[in-house]
Write a structure and sequence with these properties.
By secondary structure, the chain is α/β, with parallel strands linked by helices. The protein has one domain: NAD(P)-binding Rossmann-like Domain (Rossmann fold, 3-Layer(aba) Sandwich). The chain contains 10 helices and 9 strands. Strands 3-2-1-4-5-6-9 form a 7-stranded parallel beta sheet, with helices on both faces. A two-stranded parallel ribbon has the order 7-8. Strand 5, helix 5 and strand 6 form a beta-alpha-beta unit. Helix 1 runs parallel beside helix 2, helix 4 packs parallel to helix 5 and helix 9 packs across helix 10. Keywords: Oxidoreductase.
Length: 270
Amino acid sequence: MNLTGRVVVITGGAGGIGAALARRFAAEGAEALVLADLDVDAARAVAAGIGPAASAVGLDVTDEEQVRALVADTERRYGRIDVFCANAGVTTGGGVEVDDAGWDRAWRVNVLSHVYAARAVLPAMVERGSGYLLHTCSAAGVLTAVGDAAYTATKHAAVGFAEWLSITYRDQGIRVSALCPQGVDTPMLADGLAAGHLGAQVIAASGAVLTADQVADVTVAGMAEERFLILPHPEVADYARRRAEDPDGWQSGLRKLVRRLRAGASPRPH
């Protein structure tokens, strides 16, 4: 995928990875960037920093009617959507004790929002015979988010859905990538650390934290090669292999890491 001249929609575009993707896509020569976020003022600030190619809209990704309206409005304004980045995501920082509302919110933001986006954009993309879906899924979708059960479960579902889309629609001209970073210096990580979430502590202590701009650079390279799995942290591929080859050993290693962290020791990268 060459991003020059492309019309791109990015959810969760007000900050973090979404904002970094917008800046990087603009540098690649995207024709138009639509940044959608609950925090429309922050999205407008990002768009203003990019220039006239970018605009911002308010969006609740868990409301399918809002997603459909965003897609329809963008198609009316620009004639098409070439790339849809389903990037919004939430964490809970907890396990089975997280209440139903927390689990439901994680499911709706981390999974159903991807479904809503695909439903809205696929008909026109299939008719044209081209289009690109970029789903931010997290390394938690191929590994485990220690300390966050809902995030782990929903990100696994997100990767599974992205894979299903790729298998089902690639022969119709649709490309799909699952972006699966591990630790990224974003407000999500900062908020998790401030709240004392175990998973955020593991990521921060591992030393494997990238900037959002670094993630965006790797994403553009991955999209240029139309790779399904885009792994800004290449070690995630090694972890995934180890997990598949020896699931018991993998889980044992993670349990040891958690014990060290809870004891106050500095965990070694896993």
